[in-house]
Amino acid sequence: MAANIERRPHVLVFPFPAQGHMIPLLDLTHTLACHGLSLTVLTTPQNQSLLDPLLHKASTEGLSIQALIIPLPPTEGLPPGCENLAQIPLHLFFLLMHSFKELAHPIEHWFQQQKNSDYGFGPPVCMISDFFLGWTYDTATKLGIPRIVFHPCGAFDAFLHYSLWKYMPGLMESDDDKVHFPELPHPVSFAKHQISSLGQLYKRSDPVSEFIRYSMNLNVKSWGNLINTFNDLEAVYMDHLHRVSGRPVWSVGPLFPPAVFDPKQRRTMIERGKPTTINESVFLQWLDSRGEKSVIYICFGSQACLSNKQVEEMAAGLEATEESFIWVIRDPPSGMPADEYGVLPQGFEDRMEGRGLIIRGWAPQLLILSHPSVGGFLSHCGWNSTLESITLGVPLITWPMAADQYYNARLLVEYLKVGVRFCEGATTVPDRDDWRIAVKRLLAREGEEMKRAEELSKAARIAVQEGGTSYRNIEAFVSEIKK
Ligand SMILES: C[C@@H]1O[C@H](OP(=O)(O)OP(=O)(O)OC[C@H]2O[C@@H](n3ccc(=O)[nH]c3=O)[C@H](O)[C@@H]2O)[C@H](O)[C@H](O)[C@H]1O
């Protein structure tokens, strides 16, 4: 950009290197650019290609978005070149979070360069970073700009983390599962394992755990919160979070490429997240040849992968029932024995020829969920998959495996009535009869789930359309930034 061209307010965006966290924040970056901001997305060399679809779209649409690539110094204990959560086993998660703090000084140096240059977007006026990057609050404060927290896991999860970090370790003493927060009129019930799992982190005194505690606590001090949710879904927890934090909270979701709502443009979503491993026309022809809402889509996000025992029982369940299915099977990350995961029973694929489509690797999930022949989604209830299914009117069969997925599943089954419970736990071997019952309930419309999915889908679309709650929140956030 030539010198002294009219500069728009410039925002530095820092996603956490995991697909479930990066995908929605990159969609938000596109939306904010459409609202007249200039944005720089910071990441590391191994994650650079994940920005390509966004940068390509920005150049074709004339939006001000650029990448800032900063090398990640090697970290003892992390396999060399591993800079994304999908590349490592989950037990190295905290080490990856800890390793990213090495980017603090390079960010400060880059910021000074922007200040001293008449070219480019100019120095950022604020930073939006993932809630796993709490330490960036210190960097932003040092640079004299506000830091806004991006929550990719919904308002309940944001409230849970916020309130527990604010009142830990006191909470560990109480054996009451109802927590009384001074800011809230009513006690809030938390499942014990939610307090104890965070409690573990409090008990550990190793430098990484101490750093994670310190970092997560800085979210409490940050200037504001952007949450990938919408009011119809989580207004109560938006309000709780605002009361407990005393900071601005904006629901800006569901965060998707605008193409998701336009059948003519849907094919542009083929590359969301990363290039798919299946030929587009192959699976679209296959889906086009199926009956309306007759296909079950099976995918467990960008992290989880099934052991061979789990695959065997899942396959038996699918073989014992009639419905058509698309099953996405992920290869395990490095460090996990490849031959112990994702191996289908002998001859299964041939026997399922015509009824089942296996996708190995990465599937165009939004494109599949938006196809009229998809009538159900067996999911691990990651928040993005949850929002995508609800927004596209597809009811779910739940199999939570980690983190927030357990309470996402409860929300779907017990509160929103848009999901059917099937299995729980990352290592649990599913039961083929539970599968038959869950599928029948969903596709035979024995329950309300399909109808509820259609109702919630309408609410989600209204939220992001002009005048909708999330649309107005984005406008309000942008005008705050432009002040
Ligand atoms: C926020 C947090 O991120 C994590 O993400 P994870 O990848 O497991 O799952 P999703 O949130 O569904 O995110 C996965 C994202 O990858 C997309 N996708 C996935 C597989 C594929 O083959 N093709 C695709 O397009 C999918 O459409 C979604 O957008 C944790 O679960 C956590 O529970 C969740 O709240």
From TrEMBL:
Record GO terms (molecular function): UDP-glucosyltransferase activity
Q: What class of enzyme is it?
A: transferase
- What's one Pfam family here? UDPGT
- Which ranges form a coiled coil? none
Q: Which CDD domains match?
A: GT1_Gtf-like (cd03784)
Is the keyword Cell inner membrane assigned to this protein? no
Protein keywords: Glycosyltransferase, Transferase
Is Glycosyltransferase there in the keyword field?
yes
Stored Gene3D superfamilies: Glycogen Phosphorylase B
Q: What is this protein called?
A: Glycosyltransferase
Organism in which the protein naturally occurs: Picea sitchensis
